[in-house]
Design brief:
Strand order of the largest sheet: 5-2-1-6-7-9-8
CATH superfamily of the largest domain: Vaccinia Virus protein VP39
Number of helices: 20
Structural class: alpha/beta
CATH topology of the largest domain: Rossmann fold
Oligomer: single chain
Helix content: 40-55%
Radius of gyration: 26 Å
Strand content: 15-25%
Distance between the termini: 71 Å
CATH architecture of the largest domain: 3-Layer(aba) Sandwich
Number of domains: 2
Length: 420
């Protein structure tokens, strides 16, 4: 027993030192001698994972989960194995698709003005038929495959295919939201209210939308500057919204508000991503959206709650980013942006660009015009909620006595609704 314990201590040291092969040399006889010893199987799972033997690692981790008194450590290894497997599968798919992606990328411009060549047509159809795996929201090649895989008519979709825009959309995080709501996107026409720069357009096409119309009152149709949602900063996207709309038949972009523009058409899906918290007159907007609806249209919005820890839309976004030496951080940290409200000057951004609508108010307004099918209140992180102490709650309620812990804890709402 002492030798086994000493051996496992050495195994742990070797694994932590990134020497899994040496660890396996010790583990193999230990497992052969005691195959039902959970901790030994657990360490062999870790060592096998480190060497890339995913099938062996999964078998050992599954065994350890059953044999160990507490399976949580084995479950964490199993989760890491699944991540590694996804990366392996993605790399295999990218390699498999490389030749066809190259054919389409080189031939897509000619195909916009004439019928695609047989080589391009065949490459598109092969890409569409692939089994899609991995994170196609962030990997540009996987996003290109997803574009055709999700299209209702892959060859017809070639007319709006742009490899540069798909790559930038993946890099800038513009495919994440369409992926999240893909069940309401694929095979459907989408109007995106408050679309910002317009970068979501290609993201929705990657997720399978048949067409996209984006509108935003602040859209600069002739600027290449866009917000990189991954880095949370502005960057050059390399193309203007006007050029996107001119080049891609499936994408239309307008500067304006939905309540001020008239469209003689109806849409299958209406999307608002982190828009409802900015609306000066949310009821007018929601009421106006009804005119854009078919009988089975889905209204889908993601609302960032002003009363959560980071509802101010300023840094820090999460507690890990908090700089105790930053005066700006200290003004808003731990719900102090709520404390500020009575003392802000009339033109302050919190009063002019954030409507501070409360969760129940937003739901009540939505239900006046739509039937809510899904109302998912997304909690703040555990690290954030740990900061909601009784002292903080008491302090915030000195400004707003009726604020509930729920309102302070919910970071966002995902709503799906149909017209009444």
């Amino acid at each position: 027993m002492t030798d086994a314990r000493t051996g496992l201590q050495e195994v742990r040291r070797l694994i932590d030192a990134d020497e899994p092969a040496a660890a396996l040399a010790i583990l193999e006889p230990l497992v052969a001698e005691r195959p039902e010893h959970g901790l030994t199987r657990f360490f062999r799972a870790r060592a096998r994972l480190a060497t890339g033997d995913l099938d062996g690692a999964r078998a050992d981790a599954d065994a350890a989960a059953v044999l160990m008194p507490d399976r949580s450590a084995a479950d964490r290894v199993l989760a890491r194995i699944e991540v590694a497997q996804a990366r392996t599968d993605s790399a295999t798919l990218v390699a498999q698709a490389a030749a066809d992606v190259a054919i389409v990328d080189s031939g897509h411009l000619a195909a916009r003005n004439a019928a695609p060549t047989e080589d391009v047509r065949a490459a598109v159809q092969r890409l569409a038929a692939l089994d899609l795996v991995g994170d196609w929201t962030s990997d540009p090649t996987l996003a290109k495959i997803a574009y055709f895989h999700h299209a209702v008519d892959p060859v017809r979709a070639l007319a709006s295919y742009d490899p540069h825009l798909i790559g930038v959309s993946a890099d800038f995080g513009y495919i994440t939201w369409p992926r999240r709501i893909q069940e309401h996107v694929r095979g459907r026409s989408v109007i995106d209210v408050g679309c910002g720069f317009g970068g979501f357009g290609v993201g929705f096409l990657v997720a399978g939308a048949t067409s996209y119309l984006g509108l935003d009152p602040a859209m600069d149709l002739d600027s290449t500057s866009a917000r990189n949602k991954r880095l949370r900063e502005r960057a050059d996207m390399g193309i203007t919204p006007r050029a996107i709309a001119e080049n891609l038949p499936a994408v239309r972009l307008f500067r304006g508000k939905s309540e001020d523009l008239s469209f003689d058409e109806r849409f299958d899906t209406i999307s608002l991503h982190n828009v409802t918290e900015h609306l000066a007159d949310p009821e007018r907007v929601l009421a106006g959206l009804v005119a854009l609806c078919k009988e089975d249209t889905r209204l889908v919005f993601h609302h960032h709650n002003y009363y959560c820890w980071n509802g101010h839309h300023d840094p820090p976004v999460q507690p890990a980013q908090l700089d105790p030496a930053s005066a700006e951080h200290q003004q808003v940290v731990d719900w102090r942006h709520i404390d500020q409200l009575p003392h802000l000057p009339a033109g302050h951004r919190y009063l002019t660009t954030l409507n501070r609508i409360r969760l129940d108010e937003l739901r009540e307004l939505t239900e006046r015009y739509f039937v809510v099918e899904q109302w998912e209140e997304i909690s703040s992180s555990a690290a954030t909620l740990a900061r909601l102490t009784p002292e903080v709650l008491e302090r915030v309620r000195r400004t707003m006595p009726d604020l509930t812990e729920r309102e302070l804890s919910v970071n966002a709402v995902l709503c799906v609704a149909t017209p009444r």
